[in-house]
Amino acid sequence: MEDFPMGGKPTYEELEKKVKLLQDKEEERAHLEDAFLEVASMFRDIFENAAEGICVCHNIPDEPYVKFTHWNPHMTEITGYSMEEINKLGWYQTMYPDPEVQKRAIERMAKMREGNDIRGEEWVVTTKSRGKIPLSISTSIIKKEDGKVHVMAIIRDIAKSKKAEAALKESEERYRQLFEYAPSGIYEFDYKTRKFTSVNDVMCTYSGYSREELM
User: Fold this and answer.
1) In terms of Cα–Cα distance, which of 90, 92, 124 is closest to 108?
2) Closest CA relative to residue 200, chosen from 192, 184, 191
3) What is the C-alpha separation between 109 and 93, in angstroms, rounded?
4) Rounded to whole angstroms, how far apart are CA atoms 14 and 167?
5) Is the dihedral of CA 23, 26, 30, 32 positive or negative?
6) Which residues 6+ apart lie within 8 Å of 191 measured at CB?
7) What confidence tens digit (pLDDT) does each residue in 74-112 have?
8) What is the dihedral sign for C-alpha 78, 83, 88, 92?
9) Cβ neighbourhood burial of 190 (10 Å; 0-12, 13-18, 19+)
10) Residue 82 in contact with residue 71, Cβ under 8 Å?
11) Could you give the C-alpha distances from 108 to 60, 77, 112, 153, in angstroms and in order?
12) Rounded CA gap, 3 and 117, in Å?
């Protein structure tokens, strides 16, 4: 914006131009502010309604006592603690009461302080109301400056998937035992390759061939 000549009086046109310039700058500032508020609102909605637990810790300390600055509702659903409670009690001290597990968790924090992202690690934590549950924990570095490391953690409750995985494994084991110890000859055959894919011992006895020969 140009200044008026020293000692000179601005003309009407100059004043009008200056006012228009100020109005344009104010409109631009208002548009930028609206855009910022819209983006901030969108990210807040994503944070609050995410299906996973999300928490943020600015400046991970040297000692194993982190202070969270952001903690979405799903974190409380998973752990049973509010951010204020967990900050008072301590994440490591509360979630990992076993000394050996706590030691591993502290070693993990040291890796984070070095600025390393850690994805999809499985941990068993002690919650407030659900006892011990398995979680998948991923941490990402938000920024690293002046020796300070700021991280975001995404935490997923995998209790149901672990239970389903165990049930599937148990079912497969039952099937294997039925297959292997059935009193009748049983085989599986792939019609596309025209080959056996599995045979039990009774089938080998009936056919007179070994498992390797039939396969």
Assistant:
1) 92
2) 184
3) 13
4) 81
5) positive
6) none
7) 999 999 999 999 999 999 999 999 999 989 988 888 888
8) positive
9) exposed
10) yes
11) 12, 24, 7, 13
12) 52
pLDDT score of 37: 67
Burial class (CB in 10 A: 0-12, 13-18, 19+), 186: middle
- Position of tokens 């076993």? 98
Q: In this structure, what token pair is assigned to residue 156?
A: 């997923």
- 122, 156 Cβ separation under 8 angstroms: no
- Judge whether 112 and 150 are in contact, CB under 8 Å: no
Nearest CA to 58 out of 152, 154, 155 is that of 152
Residue pair 66/55 in contact by the 8 Å Cβ criterion = no
- In the numeric block, which tokens belong to residue 150? 């700021």
41 residue type, one letter: S
Each residue of 200-210: b (16+ CB within 10 Å) or e? bebbbeeeeee
CA atoms of 199 and 215, how far apart (whole Å): 8
Distance CA 105, CA 99 (A): 10
- pLDDT given at position 176: 87
Q: What pTM does this model have?
A: 0.66
* C-alpha closest to that of 56 among 21, 12, 86, 26: 86
